[in-house]
Description:
This protein is α+β, with helices and mostly antiparallel strands. The protein is 37% helix and 23% strand. The protein is built from 14 helices and 15 strands. The strands form 4 sheets. Strands 8-9-1-10-11 form a 5-stranded mixed beta sheet. A 4-stranded mixed beta sheet has the order 5-7-2-6. The protein has a 4-stranded antiparallel beta sheet with strand order 12-15-13-14. The longest helix is centred in the C-terminal third of the chain and has 22 residues, at 287-308. It is globular, with a radius of gyration of 27 Å.
Amino acid sequence: MTAPPPGNTSxxxxxxxxxxxxxxxxxxxxxxxxxxxxxVVGGRSVDQPVMEPDGSRRFARLRDYVGRxxxxxxTYEARALGVFSAMGLMKSARxxxxxxxxxxxxxxxxxxxxxxxxxxxxxxxxxxxxxIDEIFIDLSDFDEDSQSLxxxxxxxxxxxxxxxxSIGITPNKLLAKICSDLDxxxxxxxxxxxxxxxxxxxxxxxxxxxxxxxxxxxxxxxGIHSVGELAAAPGELxxxxxxxxxxxxxxxxxxxIDERPIKTSREPKSISRESTFQRDLHAKLDRDELSExxxxxxxxxxxxxxxxxxxxxxxGIKLRYADFQAVxxxxxxxxxxxxxxxxxxxxxxxxKRVPLDQRMRLLGVRAGTLxxxxxxxxxxxxxxxxxxx
Length: 389
Ligand code: TTP
Ligand code: MG
Ligand code: MG
């Protein structure tokens, strides 16, 4: 995708979605009895809750924490007491001694991250992955109004995860990122370019993604605190203090201008595995050993395909002889597959088509022309495969 040509007046619709108190909210799914309490994620494994004989759980409290750990995230109840991400745990214990402390459980967070992204992709497939708990979504092609789209996406996320998120929908990524944070938690903020003076200009300049603590301090010294003050600052003043590139960027963003397209992650073109032998092998003399290695490579390719959710229409081999010459062969299957035995069979066919009188040092198997596996099951989803995901 490219930015719209200059003079194009049709506004894009870009959403930024960010999960609410993400790690802490995932923990509350596991410990629902903690709902409504100040909870902090950031402890060590010794802070794991302990099951009491009566079946209840005993949780670690912030006041008992000794060490140098920091808060990874906190529930909104803990934030109300002044406890935020990156604060030292011992310092936060002074503000909220009774808060519950839990160790982080990254596997669970990654799992819920995948779940919410898949749920959104089921509604709107043009997604830019921005990390574990946030995405941009290009909604420009929808006719539906922004509020109802946002509600539908939030509902899909909730149905898939039991978690709430906040969404900003605006004409670009810059504004969407700001807006997803304006009504947290569980919020929806929709705005257009005309709303910038009322809604964006009163905000502190550091709300703009890219204006960090250093830049905002330097702006402060120039008497510029809000986005509106930045928008009103003379261009040459900004260029003088920040250089041409940063100076003109500051001016643009203060006016809410941002043409960056959504960068959707590419579908992989192929998945391959190869193995370099410990010693050079001969097709006939080392037949069993070679066959075992070959099958192993095919099974790993099959496993990669299954894990990533693809089926392959072409299977190929790469072979490097002892003299470092390489050859490749491939074959197109009548039906796309992720089945290890079928991949092995097809790769075996390829192997028959290469000269095998010389010893080999490397063998590789490649699955190409990939399709999402879901499409084999649901041909109606074929349209989606044409989108530049
Ligand atoms: P954020 O989206 O910044 O925060 P959050 O989801 O906890 O809360 P909010 O409702 O304000 O969005 O970060 C997402 C997760 O990333 C967060 O749950 C924990 C992790 N994280 C860290 O590990 N260290 C940090 O300094 C921050 C800010 C977040
Ligand atoms: Mg978040
Ligand atoms: Mg986030």
